[in-house]
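Usage

Read records sequentially. Each one opens with the input sequence:
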Amino acid sequence: MIDLHYWPTPNGHKITIFLEEAGLDYRIKPVNIGEGEQFAPDFLKIAPNNRMPAIVDYSPTGGDPIAIFESGAILMYLGEKTGRFLPVDPHPRYDVIQWLMWQMGGLGPMAGQNHHFSRYAPEKLPYAIDRYVRETNRLYGVLDRQLTGKEYITGEYSIADMAAYPWIVPHEAQGQDLADFPALKSWFHRMATRPAVERAYARGEEIRPASQNEMTEAQKKILFGQGAPRAR
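and closes with the structure output:
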């Protein structure tokens, strides 16, 4: 059994997609990030960066239960645990890993800043909005080129696809038109219709219906007003 500490955000969806694809037994432990539950002492023992998702695997390959935070690390762990969606041979394995790192270091952070300045910042700063919309656009172009002639990012379906897809779902809010990226658009619809992806997003809807996506000012202060004292 795996406990998944989760909230339905792009990073949270990555892990439910894997768990549904692999058919692993798991239970969701909601972490309402808008209410500050990520700062609870028990959660910080699992995820010291006060971010979800995090997992506790009570049935690892060997030894005591293991706790892991950071969505990319979780995907790699689950891939190794199950022997699925992460190749063993070094060439395809590191092809997958480098695209996973591309998402973790590029697509996710840049799209995240896009979301923040376009939707949540108390002051609309044209330079910041333009900066992150353009960088998101550049990254969509990188992904579109990589997907040209392929069904999935590295050819075979992998954790790289699971990592990238949830960050493309809000493309309209990011100021992007998938019609400008034909290979990416085809991949996006291929991903969206995978039964496991549909189940993963349905789990998220159970936790937080889409009708509750708008944040209050108090929730914004919790999410965007963190500093070192709060993290401690």
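Summary fields computed downstream for this record:
- The chain has a mean pLDDT of 94.
- The two ends are 30 Å apart (CA to CA).
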